[in-house]
Specification:
With about 325 residues, the protein is α+β, with helices and mostly antiparallel strands. Helix content is about 30%, strand content about 30%. It folds into 2 domains: about 160 residues, Jelly Rolls (Sandwich), CATH 2.60.120.1440; about 90 residues, no CATH class. A hairpin with a 5-residue loop joins strand 11 and strand 12.
Amino acid sequence: MSDDYLWDGSGDPPADVARLETLLAPLRHGAPRPAVVARRGVGSLAAAALLVVAAGAAAWSVGRMGTRADRPSWAIARLDGVPDTQSRASRVSSRLDVGGWLETGEDDFALVEVADIGEVVVWPESRISLVATGEHRHVLDLAHGRIDATVDAPPRLFFVRTPSALAADLGCAYSLTTDEDGDGVLRVTSGAVSLERPGRAAVVPAGAVCSLRAERGPGTPLFEDAPVELARAVTAFDESGDASGVVDALELVRAVDTMTLWNLLPATEGSVRDRLVARMEALVPLPDGVPRAAVLRLERDALDAWYDEIEWEW
């Protein structure tokens, strides 16, 4: 018996393979066969595929809201083990429809193609759903678990909803975790992410981390190597609103940490905001034509112009 059919579909299938294909035909998603880039041992590929299919029945679930062929959807691929360049060689594909959901088991990773602009790795014991996808926006819902997103697109085209905040992609790569109550953390590895909730927002650049809490939404972002006392003071402020620790830690603030102070400005007022602005000015002067009073009034254009200057520091 030739093994060509098992590799590239040519020739006649063995009887047991033909019977299996008939049984699985209703589940076919209709995606084109991926291009073959290197021939591997057929036995090992078949064994890996069988293990993946068997595990998927219990541990990797995809739910659909209907079966219309014209329903927008994204491709899903199972990753064999922890995500890396090797893990992507062995996978079984499916589709995630708008309105549908994907839930991974305790040992399963999945790769979701974000239309034609990027991809999302879904970690074990996570649940996501596809809310919308189209020319002007793509929206995922992360109910719980972890995703790693990599997107190459104009800002504010890809969004991820969590129980506590909306993550708006600004052209970046990041990991986002959340539990079912909305507590979690965002880590950005390139570009920036805007975390948003009514009355609260935070811009998180590459190298920074930001907590999420159900009761208050996004916290204040910090670079992962921020001075310990500054990190403690910012965390205390996020939890209690007491800014005294932040004021005491201002002398520890580096030029790159003006990003943290910039994010704190809307949450402070009066003399505290004035102290933050003074420390920021000492490290990264205001751009020409931007009055200090405009920053203290939180005028959007003034804040954005200063952010552009601060951004050079990292």
